[in-house]
């Protein structure tokens, strides 16, 4: 089946209303309550989270942003980020996989403008497929060499988050020979395709259930039917990267919120009080109030910024190919600001909650440390100092950083 060009219809438009947000937030809360039950076990084992992925399917979350005309829910990005944030309070690894799925599958729109993508979208909706990626730009480029009417893919990609757990892997490489010689081709294929080898080498401090190990591609057949589109560097197509950074900001915010929720429960359950406090319980101690009040206030500020940018993302991508370079630059810089404050606040909150919860909360069986370990690990994805540079250079001189898979 060939992916013919079709009349262009907008795949993203409008913004979420209160009913949509409330409906899917409630679904996410139900899923999160179930994810919480096995979160510590998944963290300890570091195994591929197949059962958690099935739970996402059972709650209909895979098809959330697929347009209704293809059988999807047709929800907006503001809703998608809200869902990820709710799940992230329970298990940041699973939230990351789902958030990546939304962005990876939406590459059908970002890179496939004007192409008939109905068969891809319909399969996502009908089968509750989840998409992952193998796009880490710091690895050597993959080899995509012409072979007959198609291509052969070879190479290794590290940090292929979710690839071992999901259904479809999206990747990219510059074609050598064939019909698309010299073009950067975006393609997607099933995880079970012959020649896909997962290295099972993810062994890190946090995000332990994110299945972020390496994947090796060995003589994988790539046909015309696997091609999603081409990376032509347009302002609209490259909006996927600010979307990824916005996802990160929401995940870090979720970690801060999750840590505060658990800290509240632990503090209320503490017996007695510090002998100099003059109160009966730690929950009555004004110094505990001060500590938690400071952390809550900072988290609320990040939440307000994230909420505004989640909606703004819908507003910008809704312009489709009319998006300008300046539109993209402004959005990129605003999201970079969120990345800065969400990283710093999440790291502070997830480490300082212990000042309220006390030494007893450091037991491994409690798992309060998971929030800090996840943020500390994932926030190293790309240096936050360079996000500060992005914001400062644009503020002073209107300078925009080169477009990449990090900016």
Q: What is the element layout, followed by pairings?
A:
Elements: H1 18-45, H2 50-58, H3 77-90, H4 92-105, H5 107-110, H6 118-127, E1 131-134, E2 143-147, E3 150-157, E4 168-176, E5 184-190, E6 196-198, E7 215-222, E8 227-230, H7 240-269, H8 286-317, H9 325-352, H10 354-357, H11 369-378, H12 384-397
Parallel strand pairs: 1-4, 2-4
Antiparallel strand pairs: 2-3, 3-7, 4-5, 5-8, 6-7
Helix pairs in contact: 1-3, 3-4, 3-7, 3-8, 4-7, 7-8, 7-9, 7-11, 8-9, 9-11, 9-12
Domain Acyl-CoA dehydrogenase C-terminal: 248-382
Keywords: Flavoprotein, FMN, Monooxygenase, Nucleotide-binding, Oxidoreductase
Pathway: Sulfur metabolism; dibenzothiophene degradation
Give a nutshell description of this structure:
With 407 residues, the protein is of the alpha+beta class. Helices cover 48% and strands 12% of the residues.
């Amino acid at each position: 089946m060939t992916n013919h060009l079709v009349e262009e219809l907008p795949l993203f438009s409008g913004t979420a209303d209160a009913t949509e947000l409330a409906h899917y937030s409630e679904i996410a809360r139900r899923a999160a309550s179930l994810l919480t039950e096995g979160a510590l076990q998944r963290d300890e084992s570091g195994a591929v989270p197949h059962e958690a992925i099935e739970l996402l399917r059972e709650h209909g979350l895979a098809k959330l942003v697929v347009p209704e005309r293809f059988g999807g829910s047709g929800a907006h990005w503001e809703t998608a980020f809200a869902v990820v944030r709710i799940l992230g309070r329970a298990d940041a690894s699973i939230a990351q996989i789902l958030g990546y799925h939304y962005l990876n599958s939406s590459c059908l729109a970002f890179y496939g403008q004007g192409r008939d993508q109905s068969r891809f979208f319909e399969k996502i909706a009908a089968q509750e497929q989840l998409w992952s990626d193998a796009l880490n730009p710091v690895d050597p480029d993959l080899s995509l060499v012409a072979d007959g009417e198609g291509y052969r893919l070879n190479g290794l990609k590290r940090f292929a988050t979710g690839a071992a757990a999901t259904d479809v892997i999206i990747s990219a490489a510059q074609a050598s020979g064939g019909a698309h010689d010299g073009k950067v081709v975006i393609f997607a294929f099933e995880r079970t395709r012959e020649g896909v080898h997962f290295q099972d080498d993810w062994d890190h401090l946090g995000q332990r259930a994110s299945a972020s190990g390496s994947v090796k591609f060995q003589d994988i057949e790539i046909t015309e039917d696997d091609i999603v589109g081409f990376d032509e560097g347009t302002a609209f197509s490259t909006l996927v990267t600010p979307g990824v950074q916005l996802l990160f900001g929401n995940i870090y915010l979720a970690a801060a919120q999750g840590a505060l929720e658990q800290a509240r429960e632990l503090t209320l359950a503490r017996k007695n009080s510090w002998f100099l406090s003059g109160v009966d319980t730690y929950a009555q101690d004004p110094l505990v109030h001060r500590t938690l009040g400071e952390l809550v206030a900072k988290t609320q500020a990040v939440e307000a910024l994230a909420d505004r940018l989640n909606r703004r993302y819908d507003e910008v991508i809704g312009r489709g190919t009319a998006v300008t370079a300046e539109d993209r630059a402004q959005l990129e810089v605003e999201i970079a600001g969120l990345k800065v404050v969400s990283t710093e606040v999440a790291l502070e909150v997830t480490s300082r909650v212990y000042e309220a919860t006390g030494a007893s909360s450091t037991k491994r069986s409690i798992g309060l440390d998971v929030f800090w370990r996840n943020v500390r690990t994932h926030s190293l994805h790309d240096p936050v100092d360079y996000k500060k540079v992005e914001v400062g250079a644009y503020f002073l001189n209107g300078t925009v950083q080169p477009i990449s898979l990090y900016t």
